[in-house]
Design brief:
Helix content is 39%, strand content 25%. It has 14 helices and 16 strands. It has a nine-stranded mixed beta sheet, with helices on both faces.
Amino acid sequence: MEQDVTQALRREEKITLALRALYEQYGFRKYRMGKFEEYELYMENKSFLKNPNIITFHDLDGRLMALKPDVTLSIAKNTRATAQSSEKVYYLENVYWLEKQSGGYKEVNQLGLESIGRLDAYSYYEVMLLAQETLKAISESYRMQVSHIGFWVALLDGLSIEEAVRPELFSCVHGKRLHELKALLDGAGVAPFAAELIMQAASLCGDFAKTLAAARRIAISNGMTDALNELETVYGLLSQNGGAEGMTLDFSLVNDCDYYDGLIFQGYVEGVPRALLFGGYYGKLLRKFSRNLDAIGFAVYLNELDVLFRSQRGADVDALILYDETADLSALKIAADSLRARGDGLRVRVEKKIPEDLRYQKAFRFTESGLEEVTGDA
């Protein structure tokens, strides 16, 4: 019976079950949260949200509440971690967004994990390993981009680049708009030597080991070296598990600087045109909640998988069986069960008429003689 249930699960569901078991192997426990939080929590941290359009309502006591648009903020606010006791949690929760373009509401299934406490390079390696394993569970064709915000902050601090210039500077770097970056630096009166270092840093991308070595050649402060040492340590640990494959070091990855302030990474899988997994170190956010702790985690938006897997399998069912009022229902049941038993999780649908928009691999008509495959238009 258990095998039958497993075979009936969609591929997305099998993946989430396997990942939950994997996360628990590494000591992460299931985190559950309510659907609502006070709106103020999200309003004060909008720069962190993937979708800043929040669905709100007034509670009976007059408080402005929000349908949760994110899980990590709630975990960061309510964590029980201390300097002496870390917390490791994973979650599978629905979050809610307001899509301004369509004018409608959207429910998004979010999977992720967080590690909070006094962390070190091993803690960061563990989270990044699980991020890689998450991508690998979705597709063997995956890649991960890695960067370090601390490298950039130390570089700009060392060159005395004004805070007012940095948001636009990071926008140019993230968009790989190097001509605009050069014009920005010239317009801000940045010295040629400093501008050249920034341009070199913005171009650092490629093979992890080679890019790391190139980054060391332009390191001008202990802060930059510390960031590179952290990257090297984590990369070395991942390499022992074969994690170096599909992993690039890309210092143009500098988005969400208001939130991330250390390691940052994004994951991609073949068939999805944008990043599927987002993660990084967010100690700055913990400090906003008056907690002097480290935190690192990642999230995956599972709604993307439904589109991916539907396009991969190209059909809603493997077989469609058509029958009419004269059919022997007991014999029909036996025929359908027999067809399902032919393969691992073969999807068989039984109908009198073909449902609209149903995509099927093969169609069969049930007759007194049994199943007869239908060729052409069923």
